[in-house]
Amino acid sequence: MFQRLFRSEAARRRHRDAPFAAERERYLRHCADLGATPASLGNKSRELLWIARFLDENAPQGVSAEQLNEVVRKRGSAHTGKTTARRAIDVGRPWLRYLGWWRVQPIEVPFQEILDSYVTWMRDERGFTRDTVEQLQCRARIFLQWCATRNRELSDLEPVDVDQYFVNEASRRWSRQSTHNVASALRRFIRYAATKGVCDSRLADTIRGPRIYQLESVPFGPSWPDVQRVLAYTSANSRQDIRDRAILMLLAIYGMRSGEVASLRLDQLDWRHRLIRLFRLKRRQPQAYPLVSSVATALAQYIDTIRPQTDHPQVFIGLHAPQRPLTRGAIYNAVSRRFLTLRIRVPHRGPHALRHACAAQLLAEGLTLKEIGDHLGHRGTSATSAYAKVNLAALTEVGNFDLGDL
């Protein structure tokens, strides 16, 4: 690998003669297989050379975070600066993990047994989706950690303890809707814990969040002209714009969720019959849509010219190494970045805003809630009404209605 990266024989010898040369070369080859560019491999190689020189000979037995930081401090005598230290850690830690040398101090999670049991129950008995399980698990873990810091056992919990939790946490960062969601999630966990005899069965009924009224808020999706501005902004031929344009069109035209876009596979695109076959997360069943010509063009341009060669079946892959399927967070960033750049003012700048805009546009075109719900993959019209709360055209007609002759 060093032969390919460095032209100078002196540079090759310097890398070959340093400690852990075989381990460094094997890792660089692994990075190259994941799509790392020669420039990136050269930078990694130089960082690893410095790290290897300062590592102890017992490194194969395990390197902790403190030991890696000590290596970085030793290097600081030659190169100072936070950026240099951060780069060394960002390169060294993945290398040590790849080799199996990274030693992570175990983190004690309070009440881990009941939390694991709760996750198993949600996944295997209730059949919740992975995202729902992770969300409820996270909220339960935060509450359990709070209990541990207060030295409170679940069996001794009282309503005043739960009230104090909401007073401490909600006052810092929770909105009214967030407080309602946390209360609902915590009530679910406490009820489960009570069935296992861990806490009082009456405690769950005392957990009450703020009342949330159906359809109480105004729509938070952008207007359709703003959606068209976002799509037009990605008309450039840069690699990122070509990829993001296909993502934005799927969100805005088909009303897809970010998770559905992230999990979209190549075999779900039926080019022969001009269909796109989605798996709707809430319905938990496949659904076929006509492949709109503009969307087909955007997808074909991305897949044929931009998408990296990889064994991953997902359509959307990261452009930089390691080339892996995009996460929901990456899709959120692709949407949010456009809203910020174009200075489009909306309460929420993520993919769900485009889903709202899609529902509002279909309503404005005269489709019924049932038809819109079918398009969005809803199980019932009650869910659809949340996305199409206000029909501005219909309200205008009501406002212009003249009652004078009556």
Q: What does the model show?
A:
The protein has 406 residues and is mainly alpha-helical. The chain has 3 domains: 2-99, no CATH class; 112-206, Orthogonal Bundle (DNA polymerase, domain 1), CATH 1.10.150; 224-395, Orthogonal Bundle (hpI Integrase, Chain A). It has 19 helices and 3 strands. The chain has a 3-stranded antiparallel beta sheet with strand order 1-2-3, with no helix packed on it. Helix 7 packs antiparallel against helix 8, helix 8 crosses helix 10 (176-195) and helix 11 (224-233) runs antiparallel to helix 12 (239-253). It is flat, with a radius of gyration of 27 Å. The N and C termini lie far apart (88 Å).
Whole-Å distance between the termini?
88 Å
Please count the beta strands (DSSP E, at least 2 residues each).
3
Strand order of the largest sheet: 1-2-3
Q: What does the average pLDDT come to?
A: 84
The description of the largest β-sheet is: 3 strands, antiparallel
Order of helices and strands: HHHHHHHHHHHHHEEEHHHHHH
Helix content: 55-70%
The top-level CATH class of the largest domain is Mainly Alpha
Low-pLDDT windows of residues:
none
Summed up, the helix count is 19
Silhouette: flat
**Beta-strand proportion:** under 5%
Any idea how many domains? Answer: 3
- Evaluate the radius of gyration: 27 Å
| CATH homologous superfamily descriptor of the largest domain | Intergrase catalytic core
CATH topology of the largest domain: hpI Integrase, Chain A
Specify the CATH architecture of the largest domain: Orthogonal Bundle
Structural class: mainly alpha
